[in-house]
Every structure is written in C-alpha cells, then in structure tokens.
Amino acid sequence: METSRISDPRTPPGRPAAGCDVVTVPARQGLEAVDILRRGPADAVGPVLHDDGGDTLGFLVPPGTAAAWDVPGSTCTGTDGRGPALAPEPPVEGSDWLLPPGETDLATDPAVLREALGEAARIIRAADSCR
User: Fold this and answer.
1) Fewer CB atoms inside 10 Å of the end CB: C or N, the chain?
2) How high is the mean pLDDT of the chain?
3) Has residue 84 got a pLDDT over 80?
4) Kind and range of the H or E element at 60?
5) Which of 8, 22, 36, 2 is nearest to 118 (CA)?
C-alpha cells in the first residue's frame, strides 16, 4: 500500500492542516529516522515530539494519514482534524518538542517517513548484529 502527502485544498501550500495525525515510534528508531530525514532534502521532517520518559517519538503527519498507515512497530493516531496543531507549546501533556514547529513548518510526508523508518530499522538490525 502506498501512502502519499494528503493535501487539503483549504490549507495554504507548505502548511499542514490544523489537527495533524501523529505517528509514534520507539525512540531509538525515531531518532535514527530523524537523522535520515534531516540528511535529505530541506523540509523533509516536520515537528517531532518526544515523551518525558524518552521512550517514544511522535512525528506530526497530515490529517488522514492514519487511515492508510501500516508500518510495523509504529502506530498512527488519527485525529479527525482535532489533533495536535502546530503551536509553540507541546500539544500532549508529558511531552516536549524534539523538533519544534518554529524550526520547521511542514508536517512530515507519510511516504518519506515510511522510507526513513524502514531504513532506520535496517540500520538498527545491522548495528545490533555486530555486537
């Protein structure tokens, strides 16, 4: 199944609609994916949340992404347009911004995130097999 950027004609280009969905992944895989995305083209990664315990990262993705999200080891919480919006304060209690919205304005493209998470999982498997 392919996932592509979901656009809302009422949303100005380059800005996600209010109420982004959130893809949650284990912190190790998420941090590796952030590194991969930041090495890519500009604006490849949007705002990213981390929990205070450091166990997970949450990538903000366009609303509607959850309907087609099927990446093993991750979850995508659909918000029906009522989820986290890009604001200076973290939208979820007990979380903070790893990459705040002030440093990036775009939600992460789900297709690009899917590729980065796959690459991150392969890197982690390779590193763990060397031990």
Assistant:
1) C
2) 80
3) no
4) strand 56-61
5) 36
